[in-house]
Amino acid sequence: MLFTEDFLHYIWKFRLFERENLQTVDSEELEIFSAGLHNSDSGPDFHNARIRIGETVWAGNVEVHLSASDWQKHGHTHDGAYDNVILHVVYRDDVPLFLPNGRKVPTLELQNRISEELYNKYHKLVFGNQTFIPCEAGIATVDGITMQNWLTRVLVERMEKRSANVATALALNKGDWEETFYQFLAANFGFKVNALPFELMAKSLPQLTLAKNKNNPMQIEALIFGQAGFLEGEFKDEYPLKLQKEYDYLRKKYNLKPIESHLWKFMRLRPQNFPTIRLAQFAALIVQSNHLLSKILEIKEMKALRALFTEIKVNDYWEDHYRFDVQSKPSSKNMGDGSVDILLLNTVALFLFSYGKQHQQQYYISRSLKLLENLPAEKNNIIADFVNLGLKIDTAFESQALLELKNNYCNYKKCLQCGVGNKILKLA
Questions:
Q1: Dist CA 387 CA 197 (whole Å)
Q2: Which of 30, 119, 184, 426 is least surrounded, with the fewest CB atoms within 10 Å of its CB?
Q3: CA torsion 177→181→182→184, rounded to 10°?
């Protein structure tokens, strides 16, 4: 048989081996009350197991290996953490084992106790010729409750990992939640292509500086476009000339240094997504909403959350421009639903979760997950492939969870640690 030690962990954890006339290799009667708690850190593989060997009930740790001799190969012989192992579970018992105190380690050999049907199912799942995910032939057969429970778990894992980035930025900003939110929001206004220059612009222009000029929209616009590097050179139109004049004054007042304008990308972008338009929308949002995170924490209705972004109005100049000094056909430059959905997903939901986690308030975590349930699923190649396997994916809650599942479980064939993989194996 070809399998990894993880497979034996799985077999022991769920007791998926033949248990009739169970005995140790020394022919002592063995009964398992509890397999113990699976340990993913250093030390024995399972903690707090309860078993009976002969007439004696034992409580302690269980170690699992492919071969009994792996005990020595893994350096357990002189490691005190393994001195209270009450049972050694192996596929093949090739050597007897003794602890430093002379006690022989009771051993259970599973070589003839694993069903061929279960092994074949496992082998096909993990070592099969799948093209997308290991369980692509069976994922659509998993019941809704199992799927929902597992997707909820992996979604929380995803949010917790992303929250770690928020915590790091928060520490750099000396615990200032509004400044941290402002920086993340700016980066997400770049929508991947221009995320870096947007982030650099925001970090070069503290929110406190903007707050000092919150009652003057022209100055807010001048600061944002100026720090973005778009007010260098000569202009013909009155609007950029006014911005340039304002920025020259503010730049000296606050000792500001703009980022390089060459960092911004226009190529292969729809004009509606040009960085100049996104900066105009970002400036309008700053003008409209001071202390934006505080407002978001207070808002409970989805409609009101969306309104923060859909009701912003950019300067009239952009109605017939996509760039400075280049007139175009008039069109609305308000944020579209798709763009708002991305900001709600990548910034608002993340910060609700992070804020709840940092302050140990489940209310905000629940609001974050509820928000994802009310956002439409993303459209990308991974989600399209899951749909082709027969999954119905309607919400961002589901699509975000499936992205986590694919990238951190399926890609590494961690089927034995996956609720979906477990269910498929149990159906064998």
A1: 34
A2: 426
A3: 140
Structural tokens at position 269: 């972008």
CA 423 – CA 352 distance, rounded (Å): 32
The burial of 300, by beta-carbon neighbours within 10 Å (0-12 exposed, 13-18 middle, 19 or more buried), is given as: exposed
Q: What are the pLDDT digits (tens) for 316-370?
A: 999 999 999 999 999 999 999 999 999 999 999 999 999 999 999 999 999 999 9
Which helix (H) or strand (E) segment holds residue 199: the answer is helix 195-204
Is the separation of the CB atoms in 278 and 246 below 8 Å?
Answer: no
CB 293 within 8 A of CB 356: no
Give pLDDT tens digits for 123-160: 888 887 678 999 998 899 999 999 999 999 999 999 99
* Residues 79/53, Cβ–Cβ less than 8 Å: no
Chain centroid to CA 54: 48
Compute the Cα dihedral for 299, 303, 308, 311 and give only its sign.
Answer: negative
